[in-house]
């Protein structure tokens, strides 16, 4: 997209320098970028004109382009000149040297890669339960070992991944599902079509996500469906990851307490993750995904953004993932790419 907006740290020349260092023409870089993007499930056209626009500064790369560039060049966004680094954000070679054969040694290398990735996206400035957060990360790594080496099944876990619209919660939840093998349930995927039909049947807007009709009559049913489906999984001993905003729920300590107690009675652990993001990055992603349900947010952005708390996590959160400026999702992409090197 064309832009004249001043973006702190944006240095388009770094992208061109990285391409030239790799000895790539614009056409060759486009071919490689499309290959990387297809493997990572990213939407890019990567034609000559677009890449040239990114390198000469006439177009700022969109979120999928930035992720694809980082994967192709094995670098971070700050290293490619897209933005300034976050305070304390590690830079350097993101290549994770993993041996090719799937062996006990390779599995441990992969486990170490996942551990490093999770540690790097953990926001230590938030007041979460550090012990519970570390235990959750260890359990994700243990699940990877179990899948790779056909180990025994561990304790059943119900992981709630919450965050505002456009924060990256669904992407991060998918990443956890990729490496752990736990079931992944997204509220929108599970309920959106039913929600739209229900709103229409009540003479409402199918894309409404802000009026009392939705908030009082429909939203509670969405979460009931999500939690009922999760209960079916955990009753079978299947660890499950839920992706949903969970904004009201996680700010209601009584709600979380009831859920935790019900799960504890079944021998199931509850782990709560909050994906933290900045307002500008959330708006960029909401605009990028262009979903009808986001129309009201974009049309009333100042009003919507005023109600967001981007500084602190809700109470009861065990692990806060720092996805400001998309940093955590970039690391998740790199970790996935590293794991592919040891998969048969």
From TrEMBL:
- Taxonomically, the superkingdom here is Bacteria
Extract the SUPFAM superfamilies matched here.
P-loop containing nucleoside triphosphate hydrolases
In terms of InterPro entries, this protein maps to: P-loop_NTPase (IPR027417)
Question: Which residues lie within the region annotated Disordered?
Answer: 1-21
- Any single Pfam family the record assigns to this protein: AAA_33
Protein name from the UniProt record: AAA family ATPase
Q: Could you read off the lineage of the organism from its UniProt record? A: Bacteria, Bacillati, Actinomycetota, Actinomycetes, Streptosporangiales
């Amino acid at each position: 997209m064309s832009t004249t907006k001043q973006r702190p740290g944006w240095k388009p020349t770094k992208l061109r320098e990285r391409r030239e260092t790799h000895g790539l023409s614009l056409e060759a870089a486009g071919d490689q970028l499309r290959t990387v993007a297809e493997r990572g499930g990213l939407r890019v056209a990567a034609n000559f004109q677009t890449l040239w626009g990114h390198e000469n500064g006439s177009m700022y790369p969109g979120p999928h382009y930035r992720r694809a560039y980082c994967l192709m060049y094995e670098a971070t966004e700050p290293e490619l000149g897209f933005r300034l680094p976050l305070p304390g954000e590690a830079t350097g070679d993101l290549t994770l040297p993993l041996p090719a054969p799937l062996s006990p040694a390779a599995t441990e290398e992969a486990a170490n890669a996942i551990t490093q990735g999770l540690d790097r996206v953990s926001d230590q400035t938030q007041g979460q339960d550090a012990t519970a957060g570390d235990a959750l990360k260890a359990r994700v790594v243990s699940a990877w070992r179990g899948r790779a080496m056909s180990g025994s099944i561990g304790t059943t876990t119900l992981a709630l991944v919450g965050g505002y619209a456009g924060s990256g919660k669904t992407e991060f939840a998918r990443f956890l599902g990729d490496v752990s093998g736990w079931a992944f349930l997204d509220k929108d995927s599970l309920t959106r079509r039913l929600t739209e039909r229900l709103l229409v049947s009540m003479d409402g807007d199918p894309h409404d996500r802000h009026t009392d009709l939705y908030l009082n009559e429909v939203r509670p049913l969405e979460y009931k469906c999500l939690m009922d489906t999760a209960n079916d999984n955990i009753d079978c001993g299947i660890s499950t990851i839920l992706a949903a905003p969970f904004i009201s729920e996680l700010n209601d300590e009584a709600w979380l307490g009831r859920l935790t107690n019900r799960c504890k009675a079944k021998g199931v652990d509850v782990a709560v993750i909050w994906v933290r993001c900045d307002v500008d990055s959330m708006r960029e992603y909401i605009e990028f995904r262009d979903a009808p349900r986001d129309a009201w947010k974009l049309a009333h952005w100042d009003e919507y953004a005023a109600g967001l708390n981007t500084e602190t996590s809700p109470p009861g959160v065990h692990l806060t993932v720092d996805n400001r400026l998309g940093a955590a999702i970039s690391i998740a992409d790199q970790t996935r790419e590293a794991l592919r090197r040891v998969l048969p």
